[in-house]
């Protein structure tokens, strides 16, 4: 790995280019092997992302080794999707309004967000977000024995809290808050038993009001909530124990934290997550540590990447919603979305592209270190800019 890292560090600094022409918010990369569900036919690197307001959902892309690029994955002459046209789950929103946000644009109303695929024995499990027909954002899951499908949707999970659980003095109806960005954490207990938890973001930033006493504008918090679960033979997910908040947004986060991804390195569980408004240069990505996802809290937070990061080459902004693909000992491909400079959500609508960088937990001598974006150090860029959170 030291040789690979030294080679990457020796590359000249360059301006990154999008891996795909298509918009790819919330990109997630998955490498399947010959022993993965689906077998030899589906082994290789796959990519999936958010897909709003379309007749299908969660189109897939596959890495072409010969051409060194991602291609549209096809089946029967059509773009391969988790949910093809005509097979969208019946509980998904079909245009019903959101009571607390009546003027949502179509891409946010028909929300199909943050798909992430994980291996569980002989099955693949997809965690994703969709808005239901009452207008509430739900964390849900689907299963398949092959990434090419068919996929069985198991519907929304019971993880949505009521607003007064987070804000007891909220003056309105005790509504259900949405949850988004469900992701998996694998861990072991002291006996070595393998366990797993789902971590979701409570989408409190979508609920805003004026305090009737102070007249000040308020917004609900956006905690990241973990809950252990078991996974049965027939694909049934059952929660164990009680929900636990591992992180809630602070003053440095611009009103929210979201897009969390977990990785264990150097004997430590790390969480990489994003903060700020998703639609412009304010979006950025942090890294922190957590010792116990069921009882602990995120600590040692620091900024990993923002719009001024050297790796973006001055051409992109708003890097966020990370996922990782392991390349070697302590070295990962880092996938995230960003806005090309000159574009943003308010002026241009959805235009987030997928970029790929490298994240290392080893220094150039192969010694364990705190994670850094390799492209921040390439060429004449020098050491990465580190900014501690307030």
From TrEMBL:
Record-linked InterPro entries: Glyco_hydro_43, Glyco_hydro_beta-prop_sf
A GO molecular-function annotation: hydrolase activity, hydrolyzing O-glycosyl compounds
Gene Ontology BP terms: carbohydrate metabolic process
Tree of life domain: Bacteria
Alphabetical keyword list: Glycosidase, Hydrolase
Family statement: Belongs to the glycosyl hydrolase 43 family.
Name of the protein in its database record: Xylosidase
Taxonomic source organism: Cystobacter fuscus (strain ATCC 25194 / DSM 2262 / NBRC 100088 / M29)
């Amino acid at each position: 790995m030291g040789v690979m890292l030294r080679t990457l560090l020796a590359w000249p600094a360059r301006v990154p280019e999008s891996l795909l022409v298509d918009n790819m918010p919330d990109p997630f990369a998955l490498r399947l092997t010959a022993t993965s569900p689906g077998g030899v036919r589906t082994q290789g690197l796959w990519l999936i992302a958010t897909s709003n307001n379309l007749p299908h959902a969660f189109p897939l892309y596959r890495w072409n080794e010969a051409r060194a690029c991602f291609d549209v994955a096809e089946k029967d002459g059509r773009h391969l999707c988790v949910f093809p046209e005509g097979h969208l789950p019946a509980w998904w929103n079909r245009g019903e309004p959101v009571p607390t946000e009546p003027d949502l644009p179509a891409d946010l109303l028909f929300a199909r967000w943050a798909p992430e695929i994980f291996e569980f024995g002989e099955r693949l499990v997809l965690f994703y977000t969709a808005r239901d027909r009452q207008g509430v954002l739900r964390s849900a899951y689907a299963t398949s024995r092959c990434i090419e499908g068919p996929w069985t949707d198991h519907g929304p999970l019971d993880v949505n809290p009521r607003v007064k659980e987070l804000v007891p003095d909220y003056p309105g109806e005790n509504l259900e808050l949405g949850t988004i960005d469900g992701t998996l954490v694998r861990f072991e207990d002291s006996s070595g038993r393998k366990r797993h938890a789902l971590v979701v973001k409570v989408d409190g930033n979508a609920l805003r009001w004026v305090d009737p006493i102070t007249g000040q504008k308020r917004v609900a918090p956006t905690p990241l909530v973990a809950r252990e679960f078991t996974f049965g033979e027939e694909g049934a997910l059952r929660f164990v124990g009680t929900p636990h908040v591992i992180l809630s947004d602070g003053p440095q986060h611009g009103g929210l934290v979201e897009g969390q991804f977990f990785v264990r390195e150097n004997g430590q569980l790390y969480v990489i997550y994003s903060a700020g408004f998703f639609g412009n240069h304010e979006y950025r990505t942090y890294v922190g540590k957590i010792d116990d996802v069921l009882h602990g809290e995120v600590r040692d937070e620091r900024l990993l990447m923002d719009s001024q990061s050297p790796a973006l080459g001055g051409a992109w902004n708003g890097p966020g919603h990370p996922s990782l693909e392991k390349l070697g000992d302590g070295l990962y491909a880092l996938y995230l979305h960003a806005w090309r400079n000159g574009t943003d959500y308010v002026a241009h609508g959805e235009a987030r592209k997928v970029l790929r960088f490298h994240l290392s937990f080893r220094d150039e001598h192969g010694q364990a270190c705190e994670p850094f974006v390799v492209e921040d150090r390439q060429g004449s860029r020098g050491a990465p800019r580190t900014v501690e959170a307030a």
